[in-house]
Amino acid sequence: MTESEKLKAARAVAFRFLGYSARSCAEIERRLDRGGFDPSVTAVVVAELRQEGYLDDESFASDWIKDRADRKQYGRSRLKAELVQRGVDGETIQQAIGAVTAEDEFRRALEIALKKQPLTPLTTQGRDELLQADQKLAQMLHRRGFTWDIVKQVLALREENREELS
Question: Is 45 in contact with 11 (CB distance < 8 Å)?
């Protein structure tokens, strides 16, 4: 196979992969490596895709964070971990994740908490059951990527509101 045929085949694989969803540069590189393409061919194709605007890690990270934070309601640490997994560099991640404020994160965590466990007065449930439910809620919020500080704030607010309901 000639060099131009290899480039043409690598471009086809890359465009097909991009057709499913937006990708980071590292994801395209890994896909082409799995396809058995030479690293030199991979580098040329990735450079072309970047130059033509098909690959842009900054906009990819920004769009990823907006989508996953709102649709999946993930916290900053989960979003960061997902971008690291997709091969986005640390500086780009920090820049993109800066758009998620602590207030936004707290609001999302509180929405999740109220959806998963509506507030009930202390008289409805015993103290032990409420503590167990709060522990499960805290673990679930942490798995979604919310910091323990945010989780504590949510639980404290729930406790205040619970006392007001009683």
Answer: yes
Altogether, the residues listed in the chain come to a count of 166
Kindly state the percentage of the chain with pLDDT values over 70: 92
pLDDT for residue 130: 80
| Contact partners, residue 24, CB within 8 Å, separation at least 6 | 55, 57, 60, 61, 83, 86, 87, 88
Angle between helices 39-51 and 25-34 (to 10 degrees): 150
Residues 130 and 77 in one domain: no
Its domain, for residue 87, covers: 58-97
According to the model, what pLDDT value does residue 131 have? 82
What's the rounded Cα separation, in Å, for the pair 157 and 134?
12
The Cα–Cα gap between 137 and 70 comes to: 19
Instruction: Give me the pLDDT at residue 122, please.
Output: 56
